[in-house]
Amino acid sequence: MSPMKIDHDAIRNLATLLTETDLTEIEIAEGDKRIRVTRTINVQALTAPMSMPNVTAANAPETAKVTAIAPENHPGAVKSPMVGTAYLQADPTAPRFISKGSTVKPGDTLLIIEAMKVMNPITTSKGGVVIDILVEDSQPVEFGQALVIIE
Question: Which domains, ranges and CATH numbers included, belong to the chain?
């Protein structure tokens, strides 16, 4: 068996295709030779500061309304980078990666999204406390859907 000649241009083209299509893995085969290119996606939580009006009890109207922030607009929302199925644990018998009230640090796995038979770990880029888990185990998720709130 002759050694495989590496086609650097083909690898670059596959890597570019991964980025353009938001895929995490691509593989091509020719005979018994294969080239597989993969990439890891890290989800970054939004960190836009929120400005709140300064209201004191003395000047607050009697019927003040509290407006809840939609999960997708929450500054601590971790959003799905892809369409797929969310799993809250590595396998059905394993403990969940996170729970409400648990503390996470940057790089911790929050959940897994299966897309096209590939398991993609969704990690956090910031530390904090898990305030809410917005998906159920084995639930389909959409691109940009809020999955977890971390404060």
Answer: 8-38 (no CATH), 71-150 (2.40.50.100)
Q: Are 76 and 149 in contact (CB under 8 A)?
A: yes
CA distance 59 to 141: 43
Residue 24 is encoded by which pair of tokens? Answer: 């995490």
Distance CA 112, CA 109 (A): 8
The residue ranking higher by pLDDT, 54 or 18, is 18
Cα–Cα–Cα angle for 132, 80, 111, nearest 5°? 60
Token code pair at residue 80: 């799905």
pTM across the whole model: 0.55
